[in-house]
Amino acid sequence: MVRSLDYNQSMHSRRSQLAVAFDRACLAIQLLAYAAAAYAQQIPATKGRILLLPRSVVSGERATLAVLDGNGRLAPGVQVHFSNGDHLTTDQTGRALFVAPLTLGTITASIQGRPGHIATTVLPAAGNVSTPIAVDAIPKLASLTDRFEIQGHAFCGVADANQITVSGEPTLVLASSPTSLILLPPLDLPPGRASVDISCAKQNGPPLEVVFVSLDLRADNSPLTPGLHRELTVQVRGTRGKVELEATNLAPDIAELVGGNPLRVYSSGGGQNLARCEVIGRKSGNFLISIRLLATPSSPD
Description:
Layout: E1 3-5, H1 12-22, E2 29-34, E3 37-40, E4 50-52, E5 56-58, E6 62-68, E7 79-82, E8 87-89, E9 95-99, E10 105-111, E11 118-123, E12 134-137, E13 141-143, E14 148-153, E15 163-166, E16 169-170, E17 172-177, E18 180-184, E19 192-200, E20 203-204, E21 208-219, E22 229-237, E23 244-249, E24 255-257, E25 263-266, E26 274-281, E27 287-293
């Protein structure tokens, strides 16, 4: 059974901070072209679009999930249903605290009224043994405008009980369990290498580093007509190494993304560190291309 818990721990003062932070928490760079003008714009919001569930939870221990709307903001009042029949509703912070099932194995969850399921693995409890914070996997690269994940042990299941900083700045914990953290980088963090410090229940984690990159989109804003080719360029800042990006065409009836949809490309590396893709106009109207960094957690050095 998944048991929901009240999660209104003095969150009134944090609501404005969360709203501001999630204005920039979209999972991609979004390019909007209307009548052949290209510029960044947010996807229209739809309440309860994205469910964030820790990759794994610990049997009988607390964990926190989150739901985002179409603009990447935390969505309060959204019902989440688990495959074992349990359900809960996100509170005013857009998150919900629950107790993981006692039955081990895989359990899935979904947002009421939306297709798709997110799976998490229920791991056995360690008993009363107190263990220090350990990190098993953390991304070497992360986007400044996207969430990133840390896997390990002895984290706090209550999201805000984890004290996490990036280059000394507090970091928002979106979802958490004793073995998994989903985080959002601090506002105004510059591109480049940054320290990541974790503490929970008066324990400190090992020193960590992540390279945070920005993805700056460049596009010609002259008129786009059917059949016209248009090159889109993304400049990667924060690293001179090659990075893998994924471009997704969200309006294929308006424009064609050359090379497939989604399309994976590598940046050039070096000082400019550019990645390029191309679209072909099919008809007049709005087209939307999202570009995101592809990075997976790996063992810390």
